[in-house]
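Risk register update: the risk of archive-format incompatibility is retired. Evidence:
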Amino acid sequence: MKEIYIYAIITREYLRTEDWVPPHPWVALPADAVAAEAAPLPPARAGHARVLNARGDAWEYAEDHRGKAGWLADGTQHVMDTLGPLPEGWSETAPHPSLEEARTAKQAEIRTGYDTALSGVLAGAEATATGVAVGSALMAVSDPEGLEYLVERLTARRVELEQALLIAQAAADPVAAVLAIVVSYPT
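Archived output:
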């Protein structure tokens, strides 16, 4: 019986140790194995995988960050799925958007919130420009004062949020101030 180390064929990383008996005299080793005496296995090291070198005679340590989530230097989210060091510029915290990106996103959130609130009150109208227009027209016929009151309240809130957005852009940390605006409408 011979002790062998089984490794992953593609990554060549150590998987397990086995006691092995050749099934036939002409079979030396399985294709994904190395004899323990030919390449002694070093101790495990936290955050690393043991990888058999190309010659098959020694184990090397490779950084193992697989499964780790973060952001690449270009700001895209990424989950590590290979052995090796983290890419240059890697960050575990989300990048802050630029003031323009934050402002544009908050403006869209204010508009969408307004349309959604208005369509919700219009009893089933779709939250689209057409849906709101159709719902408004139907409500204008059945309850003109109610529609006017509702539109005034929602419009006043939208204006209040847009003013808060302008004020936030002049704050000491404008991106944080813009992101902190909570978009809500009365129901």
